[in-house]
UniProtKB/TrEMBL annotation:
SMART domains: FCD (SM00895), HTH_GNTR (SM00345). It comes from the Bacteria. Signal peptide: none annotated. It comes from Paraburkholderia aspalathi. Residues 50-117 form the HTH gntR-type domain. The keyword DNA-binding applies. GO terms for molecular function: DNA binding; DNA-binding transcription factor activity. The lineage of its organism: Bacteria, Pseudomonadati, Pseudomonadota, Betaproteobacteria, Burkholderiales. Keywords: DNA-binding, Transcription, Transcription regulation. This is DNA-binding transcriptional regulator, GntR family. Residues 1-20 have a biased composition (Polar residues). Residues 1-23 are annotated as: Disordered.
């Protein structure tokens, strides 16, 4: 399956999204406090064949990931439906999916709020993502084509350009496309789609960690090792490179939680450690 276009819609990141200033990231919202919601209407197209509820879901999820909607921010169906000028039904559908993804919570008699990040769910998400993506890259190392390898190399080049210009949002979009393309290489994009909600908490930490805690150059080097394993058609090398890359979040999670305590729930260590 050709992978020339690595800027395909991966449903998580968009290079058009600007990260919220770090000062906003550290704001702690009080439950029930009214805040002015960011204008997200540019993220929705009524001319698209995609259901409007799915577009609203993605727009809100992206705003949560990017820190435009910080933990504790109250959301109401009415406010969001007014923003997008739609009925409440597609907004309700989007809210349900966001609750399922673990980024919204409904508090009885109080309302719906952006949820804090659960360190345990970050580790669980990484564990599941690692299991899937190492299997994918291992298989891709056997069957990947020269055309697909070139597309990944082009993506890696663009990552370097994004890092050089300090365009974090563009880098994250390219990062998503890089991983998505590996799933495309084995004609199994369902593997990538399966982990979208699973890795939601991971993605929120990734936004907070760049570029201070997880330098872009480091992540680019990790991607280069994955590509080298694929080029060598070495399943073991590709698998190990992917595993090492996905475990980077275990290094950054602690420092990020310390820097942004208002963003995180208290940690709940798992009975069986998932980080080893």
């Amino acid at each position: 399956m050709p992978t020339k276009n690595l800027h395909a819609n991966t449903s998580s990141f968009s290079s058009d999204t600007t990260l919220a200033p770090r000062t906003r990231r550290r704001v702690s919202m009080q439950a029930g406090a009214r805040v002015e919601l960011p204008d997200l209407t540019a993220s929705v197209s009524f001319d698209s064949h995609e259901p409007i509820g799915k577009q609203i879901f993605r727009a809100l999820r992206q705003a949560i990931f990017a820190g435009q909607l910080v933990p504790g921010t109250p959301l109401s169906e009415k406010e969001v439906s007014d923003m997008f000028q739609v009925s409440r039904q597609p907004v309700r559908e989007a809210f349900i999916k966001l609750v399922e993804a673990g980024v919204l919570q409904v508090l009885p008699q109080r309302g719906t709020f952006v949820k804090r990040i659960s360190p345990r769910q970050v580790r669980e998400g990484r564990f599941i993502r690692e299991a899937i993506e190492t299997a994918v890259v291992k298989k891709a190392a056997v069957s990947i084509t020269d055309e697909q390898l070139q597309a990944l190399a082009d993506n890696l080049r663009d990552q370097k350009l994004a890092a050089k210009s300090n365009d974090t949002a563009a880098f994250l979009a390219l990062d998503e496309a890089f991983h998505y393309a590996i799933a495309q290489a084995i004609d199994c994009t369902a593997a990538w789609e399966t982990i979208q909600d699973i890795k939601a908490q991971m993605d929120r930490v990734r936004y907070l960690s760049l570029p201070e805690v997880s330098p872009l150059d480091l992540l680019i080097k990790q991607h280069a090792k994955i590509l080298a394993g694929l080029r060598a058609h070495d399943p073991g090398a590709a698998e190990e490179a992917m595993r090492s890359h996905l475990r980077e979040i275990l290094v950054s999670l602690g420092p990020i939680a310390e820097r942004n305590p208002a963003w995180f729930d208290a940690d709940e260590p798992e009975r069986v450690p998932l980080s080893t």
